[in-house]
Amino acid sequence: MKYDIISAPSYALLEMTLNEGESVIVEPGSMAWMDTTVKPKTEMKGGLFSGLKRRMGGESFFLNTYTAEGGSGKIGIAPGYSGDIVVKELNNETIYMERGAYLCHLGNIETSVSWEGFKGAFAEGMLGLRVSGTGLLFFGSYGDVQEVEVNGSYIVDNGYAVAWESSLDYSIERSGRKIRSFLFGDQLICKYRGNGKLWIQTRSPRNLAAWVHPFRMVKSKSD
Amino acid sequence: MRFDIKGNPSYGEVDIDLGPDETILIEPGAMSRMSSNLNSSFQRQGGFFSAMFRKMFGGESFFLGKYSHQNGGQLTFAPSVPGSVQHYQLSNNKINIMAGAFLACTPGVNVKAKFGGFKALFSGEGAFLLEVSGNGDLFFNSFGGIVEKEINGDFIVDTGHVVAFEPSLNYKISGMGNWKSTMLSGEGLVMTFSGVGKIYLQTRTIDGNASWLTPRLI
Amino acid sequence: MNINIDSEGAFGSAVVILEPGEKFVSEAGAMYRASSNMEIEVESRKKKNEGMWGAFKAGVKSMFAGESFFLSTYRTNDNQSGEVGLAPTHQGEVRKITVGSETWICSGGSYLGSSGSIELDTQYQGLLKGGFSGEGLVFVKASGEGELLVNGFGRISEVEVRDGITIDNGHLIAFTEGLEYTIGKAGGGWISSMMSGEGLVMKFRGNGKIFVQSHDPGRLGGALGALLPPRSD
Asked: Of C84, C35, C3, C79, whose CA–CA distance to A151 is shortest?
């Protein structure tokens, strides 16, 4: 398997060449282009039961598998949001990430949306994903990605944390102390504690969603 | 006319220097700044489909903004989505571009809407391809980075990622496998290209952007 | 105080390093990362001598124009230096403008932050001539001495006025006070019927500096909004 991240860092796309018989597991909707030798398969990873477990996490979690058959084949993979793609080699490790950041992986990697000790959603709208095992993992950032080596503690606004090593603990707090800050513009922040790597992105999907609100059509009363 | 494309690959915009009485035709709303002397008006483009039909099925606006002045002037224009801007010189040849990718052209260029077929209608990508021919300068844009590929054989592309392609290529629009797998797979419609020719692809799609944002809306 | 602008990709952001006692201000909610000793206070935007209720009414209106009403202030709380990272909503560059001999008028959506020493008038009324309602014309006046951080949708360029430059309102970031300008409709009016947005342009003359952005967020909003599910309010 060979890969190339093109158009980085702002509109990064992963071009992967699979040898005959090799497979890559991909977030649905991320296939941009491919040779006709690459064949797709939609399945619930790990069989029906694991699929149900994923659904309990609040979202259905189907993954697509693409395999090169009858020859090698190229596949282009990209997320729906603009930004960078990070490649991480996992060696029997666990990292956590924001659900939407997951892009694809190869190898013996397990992904799950619920696990013991999970506090539920990390914060408004931010679902977690636990990724562990051995293999090659690709995830995306909305905007540029910055790596922070946390040594003690560090604050990240909710929505900007992409992924972090399992050695880090996090807690969600409100910033600001004045009473009126509670009503408007209050910030939910994540405080990371411990020693480990934290990946941060420089744009927030929630801010974009708030900005685009007036541009949406208004539902008519008859709907 | 002199042109300078600045800002590629992330934020392509075009600076134009118009000579006396030279005209540039651009997508309405694309003008970002210009010397105050330039006159602007509009020009109808391609009379092949009624305005209603085009409006229903998306695609390029019926009108183009026309900018000119007897003394010439400067003008800068940009697309609505960020990405790359590509210049293409037409000398009695043709190129097909996806409706949303058209940005600007000079008056000797003909832009004709080509119906992409009924499957294209349901893709939401816009039912039209534009067949561009004639003589002059064409500017088209991508959402995200632009990638040129030489096709020789068969190649599958998610329709949203197609920007432009040479007319020597044939294509077929379909879902991924049968309709059920299309629904489950999360993939939209794809175009399978065959033949020999050049294709321009983009690394992001406005539909993919909307799908990603939808569950995060307030 | 040290301001580092990260523009490696197309998504600019700024990290401000503050010494004990120093203060930085930003659009509320612009902070994306910070050292643990950073104290964040959310304040209201007020005109000079204006009471809280007056500011609240104006603020609610600007909130629906897409602007957040509040400003945030940052200081360290442990007598050590600290850092605060600021990020805009849109993709694009971030630029630092030194305010001093010139006063700058900055489009509301382009204002990212400023050093505590800069005086901000967040309800600058100077642009409401020409009979326009003011919607979409939210501007902030920055005067005094210090650094102003602006963000653009796309790339930021400085343009020359020469014999007169016409700038589409969606592309205007900031300009120096003193420039003459008129507000009009683009293309003598035909364009507004063809597209979403009011199609306003500003025609500048005289001497001064102007910063513009390559892309117009309103046009992206139109393209994206049409593809999103409808809203109920």
From this structure: C35
B212 to A79: CB separation less than 8 angstroms, yes or no: yes
Asked if B136 is an interface residue toward chain A (Cβ–Cβ < 8 A), one would say no
Report whether A101 contacts A145 (CB < 8 A).
no
- Rounded (5°) CA angle C197-C70-C1: 110
Examine the pLDDT at A50 and tell me if it is beyond 70: no
Q: Is the CB of residue B46 less than 8 Å away from at least one CB of chain A? A: no
- If we measure between CA atoms, which residue out of B4, A59, A191, B12 comes closest to residue C35? A191
Q: Which residues of chain C have a CB within 8 Å of the CB of A199?
A: none
Residue C51's pLDDT band, with cuts at 50, 70 and 90, is very low
* Between A6 and B40, residue with greater pLDDT: A6
pLDDT at B44 (0 to 100): 72
The answer for residues whose C-beta is within 8 angstroms of residue B215's C-beta and 6 or more apart is: none
Instruction: Report the alpha-carbon angle C59-C63-C68, nearest 5.
Output: 90
What is the pLDDT, as a whole number, of residue A176? 55
Whether residue C212 and residue B32 make contact (CB cut-off 8 A), yes or no, is yes
Instruction: Calculate mean pLDDT across residues C113-141.
Output: 71
Residues of chain C numbered 185-214 and touching chain B (CB < 8 Å): 186-188, 190-191, 194-195, 197, 199, 203, 205, 212, 214
Q: Is the dihedral of CA C167, C173, C179, C180 positive or negative?
A: positive
How does pLDDT run across B112-150, given as a tens digit for each residue? Answer: 877 655 555 554 444 468 889 999 999 999 999 999 999
User: Quick check: A187 and C221 CB within 8 A?
Assistant: no
Burial tier of C84 (Cβ tally within 10 Å: 0-12, 13-18, 19+): buried
User: Is residue A14 predicted with pLDDT exceeding 80?
Assistant: yes
pTM score of the predicted model:
0.87
Show which subunits contact A, needing at least 3 CB pairs below 8 angstroms. Answer: B, C
Asked if the Cβ–Cβ distance from B212 to A40 is below 8 Å, we say no
